[in-house]
Write a structure and sequence with these properties.
With 292 residues, this protein is α/β, with parallel strands linked by helices. It has two domains: 77 residues, SRP54, nucleotide-binding domain (Four Helix Bundle (Hemerythrin (Met), subunit A), Up-down Bundle), CATH 1.20.120; 191 residues, P-loop containing nucleotide triphosphate hydrolases (Rossmann fold, 3-Layer(aba) Sandwich). The chain has eleven helices and eight strands. Strands 3-2-4-1-5-6-7-8 form an eight-stranded mixed β-sheet, with helices on both faces. Helix 3 crosses helix 4. The radius of gyration is 21 Å and the shape is elongated. About 4% of the residues have low confidence.
Length: 292
């Protein structure tokens, strides 16, 4: 039985309908276990359950719907750690998409570029993933679908040189935003992580004062490793937000609650499918509603 099936079963058995003084302690233990199984993480799950317990006692909450509402509020509050809107306040603004292999960086750029283009912005894609075979070709396909410009070089080119060219082109062409793809890299490979620092310095040099977003793309199925990734990428590149992909499957991506709590990094977008319109601005309340 899956996590949410179990939780629903507990609620249907009315354990959650008792007042705090009557509640079976097993309910809170089961709830904590299920949050952990949903990749919320042990520390964050324990904190959420303790907050629920305290709120039920303090506010005299009882009844299935009232307790569910309290739990929704607690989880939504945990996710509310920063602005979920993109900072596009300068021309150009620059956005780096980073993360490990296979999480959906390139497709997320294509989808977001489409959205920004629909909003009337002039968007330029930068193909700084020069290591993965055909990565630039994939981004070019997305650029054509989204009707955005693309700057690329040959496979194996220096990623910093590609970014330099893209920033020069953005300034010359009056682009509003540059979306930069980067090669997938393991968070524990220091030489590749250092390269992100180089890209950041190029932005500082070529576009001083530019509004910047450094978005870590996380696969919803990653589990607890997502928190480790987020810590390492934040230390190396600094992070302004998370893009959570592959929420169209069975994964619920509970690790983003732990990331929000432990690192203070907000989720900005979620990927819910493969279509060009399937990248959505993150809504904490709607996300929690979907979980519960």
């Amino acid at each position: 039985m899956g996590f949410f099936d179990k939780l629903k079963k507990i609620w249907q058995e009315d354990i959650i309908g008792y007042s705090i003084s009557e509640a079976d302690e097993a309910f809170f233990e089961d709830l904590e276990e299920m949050l952990i199984l949903a990749d919320v993480g042990m520390e964050t799950s324990t904190r959420a359950v303790e907050q629920l317990r305290s709120r039920m006692k303090r506010e005299g909450i009882s009844g299935q719907e009232a307790v569910k509402d309290a739990l929704r509020d607690i989880l939504a509050e945990m996710l509310n750690v920063g602005d979920t809107a993109l900072d596009l306040s300068t021309q150009p603004s620059v956005m780096l998409f980073i993360g490990v292999n296979g999480v959906g960086k390139t497709t997320s750029i294509g989808k977001l570029g489409h959205q920004l283009k629909e909003e009337g912005k002039k968007v330029l894609f930068c193909a700084a993933d020069t290591f993965r075979a055909a990565a630039a070709d994939q981004l070019q396909i997305w650029a054509e679908r989204a009707n955005c410009e693309l700057v690329r070089q040959h496979e194996g080119a220096d990623p910093g040189a590609v970014l330099f060219d893209a920033l020069q082109a953005a300034k010359a062409r009056g682009a509003d935003v540059v979306l930069c793809d980067t090669a997938g890299r393991l968070h524990n490979k220091q030489n590749l992580m250092n390269e992100l620092g180089k890209l950041s310095r190029i932005i500082d040099r070529e576009c001083p004062g530019a509004a910047r977003e450094t978005l870590l793309v996380l696969d919803a199925t990653t589990g607890q490793n997502g928190l480790i990734q987020a810590k390492q990428f934040r230390e190396t590149a600094g992070l302004t937000g998370i893009v959570l992909t592959k929420l169209d499957g069975t994964a619920k991506g509970g690790i983003v609650i732990a990331i929000a709590q432990e690192l203070g990094i907000p989720v900005k977008y979620v990927g819910v499918g493969e279509g060009i319109d399937d990248l959505r601005p993150f809504d904490a309340r709607a996300y929690v509603e979907a979980i519960l």
